[in-house]
Amino acid sequence: MSECPICAAEINVAPDAMAGELLVCDDCGAELELTGTEPVELAEAPSAEEDWGQ
Ligand SMILES: [Zn+2]
To answer: Most CB contacts within 10 A, which of 5, 6, 28, 42?
Structure first.
């Protein structure tokens, strides 16, 4: 169990989740990237609209 960095809601991270996986916060809808697993770390995923190079 981890915490949404945006709204602090509890996020259920699968025990076999791997770094780099994308999750969506059920509470605020933010896209989150799993940046580490030991310990579990979540960061806001880069915005698909803004940062996917053009
Ligand atoms: Zn959230």
So the answer is: 42
Residue 39, domain CATH: 2.20.28.160
> Residue 24: which domain range?
2-44
**Which of 54, 16, 52, 15 shows the shortest CA–CA distance to 31?**
52
Average pLDDT over residues 23-47: 93
Q: Is the pTM of this model over 0.85?
A: no
What CA–CA distance (Å, rounded) separates 37 from 29? Answer: 21
Find the 53 Cα to ligand 1 centroid distance in Å. 25
- d(CA 7, ligand 1 centre) in Å: 4
pLDDT in tens, 1-15: 899 999 999 999 999
